[in-house]
């Protein structure tokens, strides 16, 4: 992914709190399937039994040089075309969908954060309501 084109300011994760970010995917009617993908992020603690339910998305990143824009907290954010396609099809018509997706939920420009999350990925998937696979 062309990270240099994303200037999104991530909210910090609490140190030592086992926090992750979750993507809130806004609904879109099937007739509006060509509309922009709107989403936001929310921090959540993996250790909180009352935390939000979420799905974890596993997908093929595809060609990192081919990107499409989504709106993340109202700001343009570029993702691979494969992820953009997945998000467009995974939107629900009548409600938000909460998903963990590595390319957005992890600040890819923060090397330390990326390394910490790699060690946490099995826990992220284990705590998910279900895993989603997009190929």
TrEMBL record:
Q: Which residues form a coiled coil?
A: none
- Heterokaryon incompatibility domain location is 54-134
Q: Which InterPro entries match?
A: HET (IPR010730), HetReg/Transcr_Mod (IPR052895)
**Which PANTHER family does the entry link to?**
ANKYRIN REPEAT DOMAIN-CONTAINING PROTEIN 39 HOMOLOG-RELATED, HETEROKARYON INCOMPATIBILITY DOMAIN-CONTAINING PROTEIN
Task: Supply the name of the protein.
Answer: HET-domain-containing protein
| Species in which this protein is naturally found | Hyaloscypha hepaticicola
